[in-house]
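The following block was generated as part of the benchmark described in Methods. Ligand: iron/sulfur cluster.
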Amino acid sequence: MKVFLYDLDKCNGCHNCQIACKDEHVGNDWSPYALPQPDTGQFWCKVDEEVCGSVPHVRVNYLPHQCNHCDDAPCIAVAPEAVHKRDDGLVLIDPDAAKDLRSLVDSCPYGAIFWNEELGLPQKCTGCAHLLDDGWAEPRCVDACCTGALRFGEEEDFAEELARAEVLLPQAGTRPRVHYLNKPKRFIAITMVDVEGDEVVEGAAVTLQRAEGAETVSVLATDEFGDAWFENLAPDCYRLRVQKEGYLDLACSFDVTEKDQAVAEMRFYRVPIAI
Ligand code: SF4
Ligand code: SF4
């Protein structure tokens, strides 16, 4: 059975996959696999962009997504007469049987099914099954990905990578066939600044602990830019302590349950000289 595998470390947000999908399906009738996608309002493959942190500690994450061709697909459960799973794992909506079946749109927990008002039809990614059946090795989106971030193939051939991969919305229990490597986690980034000397501070020891239990997560030294980046953090509350000889210890708390945190100028004060 086939799987899609995204390596998000390699995704540069070029949108080639999204554009190739449009090129293949907008205005093209691939009956009985799918009727034409309308010009606007549908994204069978979509690249979402998320800007995290704040200047100068900024990172842009890209998340391409599509129908997950789930093994326990809620869309099939809702309308087994109109949606089916092929032997290769792809889930297809039958355009004839699904006519006027608007309820199908809400059955997908991923929002991967769109309503075509003009045709009165629910529509979604077909995995370019019409091309695969015509001898293509992969769908258009995969063919268009020039960084190798998106691959498609037999599940067994990706076994080692799939063991490390994640899926979207695992709590939905749908057993997706679209997997993700290197899904971004949270980060905390700071720049230590000597306010009296008006310069960044290199070599300060920065200790990150979980707020609850005080377990040490990581210890870093600020680099030549005064920066310390703590990457791949689980969403949680953390306590940060900064120490360097000649400076007063600094402590602060960060909550990264909802978003990444960045401090452009964390002020370090020198130990007062006794007169
Ligand atoms: Fe069905 Fe949605 Fe799963 Fe695709 S992602 S198979 S549309 S439930
Ligand atoms: Fe990312 Fe590849 Fe899609 Fe470009 S084509 S956005 S690199 S997955």
